[in-house]
Amino acid sequence: MNVYADIPLISHVSTMLTDMMGDDFDPDTFWNTLDGETDAMDLIGRILEQRMEAKTLEEATKNAASMLSARAKRFSDKQAALTKALGAILDATGQQKVTHALATVSRTKPRVSANVTCEEDIPSQLTVTTVKPDLKAIKAQLDAGEEVPGAELVAGEPGVMVRVK
């Protein structure tokens, strides 16, 4: 439906009515007369209905997105737990790799990251803003064997890689 098609006619009749009423302009009389001469009130009603429908659909879509986001998080958590279980099996058997018909599972080295132990001790040239230290730059200096006050290298958990080819 093209809601704009009737607007030129409504505009023309509106101008004529306003001119005819002059100083005796009465909003109720104006809208009643405009509605009698055009489909202005019907058009306004259709637009309001479509607007309410769009608002309802917007809210429903946001709710669905929220529910799907929560569902995706549950699946992500389940995947992480199952990956951890694969790692536990590798650790329990003392193996680094297992080849299965569905996939090859192997242990990876732990990722090393910078851990800030005291933000106040971090040198200013290693901060992205005055609020947060630049972990990438701190890690690079620590990897190079340099000492960074207020920071240290910490090893994360060993990873598990699953390849399906």
Task: Give a short summary of the structure.
This protein has 165 residues and is α+β, with helices and mostly antiparallel strands. The chain has helices at 7-21, 27-37, 40-93, 135-143; strands at residues 97-99, 104-108, 112-116, 151-155, 159-163.
Oligomer: single chain
Instruction: Give the proportion of residues in helices.
Output: 40-55%
Mean residue pLDDT: 90
The main sheet comes to: 3 strands, antiparallel
Strand order of the largest sheet: 1-2-5
Number of separate helices: 4
Overall geometry comes to elongated
What is the number of beta strands?
A: 5
Task: Report on the architecture of this protein.
It is a single chain. The strands form two sheets. A three-stranded antiparallel β-sheet has the order 1-2-5, with helices on one face. The protein is α+β, with helices and mostly antiparallel strands. A hairpin with a 4-residue loop joins strand 1 and strand 2. The model has no long low-confidence stretch (mean pLDDT 90). The protein is built from four helices and five strands; from the N terminus they run H-H-H-E-E-E-H-E-E. The chain is elongated and about 90 Å long.
